Amino acid sequence: EVVVDFERLNEHAAAFQGYDVGFCCLGTTRAKAGVDGFIRVDRDYVAQAAELARAGGCKHFVLQSAHGANKRSKFLYLRVKGEVENLVQAVGFDHCTILQPAMLLCARQESRPAEWIAQQFFGLVARVFPTAYSVPVETVARAMVACVLQPGKGKVEVLENKAIHELGKA
């Protein structure tokens, strides 16, 4: 484990050397970091980490993004996620896997009342439509590992929620 200062990430380039695979689940919220902080963490830090990983020899980069990510979205969250997907793809990894999960079902240590309500709702919906609107974080983690052990075809692979469920059970 290496602790890095993301504000001075270039000073930690050595921490990104010598790995064949990189996994990135970095993110924050606008409520926690403000608009500028959200963009810095979810786009700029992720893109810079991908560049350092590639320079350090990483061949396969696995990025957790979000369902509906689109660089042209009117919604800040989805726009930033779409922008970072494009930035990571442009780095030039031999293989890049982007996971676009829907609502992540997980227990959080911090209080997020609106997210808690949404998780309760989507947890119930998942009983009828298990792969449509949500996914447990454990399933996403298993899918991230599985996509490295059995890589898909092509240079860039985008996995949406249903594919994440399927791969996470493999």
TrEMBL record:
Gene3D superfamilies linked to this entry: NAD(P)-binding Rossmann-like Domain
Domain NAD(P)-binding: 2-151
Highest taxon in the source lineage: Eukaryota
Any one annotated GO CC term: cytoplasm
Coiled-coil parts of chain: none
GO molecular function: catalytic activity
Database matches in SUPFAM superfamilies: NAD(P)-binding Rossmann-fold domains
InterPro entries from the UniProt entry: NAD(P)-bd_dom, NAD(P)-bd_dom_sf
GO biological process: import into nucleus
Oligomer and partners: Monomer. Forms homodimers during oxidative stress. Interacts (via N-terminus) with elongation factor EEF1A1 (via middle-region); the interaction is direct and competes with EEF1A1 binding to guanyl-nucleotide exchange factor EEF1B2, thereby inhibiting GDP for GTP exchange and reactivation of EEF1A1. Interacts with nuclear transport receptors XPO4, IPO5/RANBP5, IPO7, IPO9 and KPNB1 as well as GCN1L1/GCN1 and LRPPRC probably through their HEAT repeats. Binds NCOA5/CIA.
Annotated protein name in UniProt: Protein HTATIP2
Designated gene of the protein: Htatip2
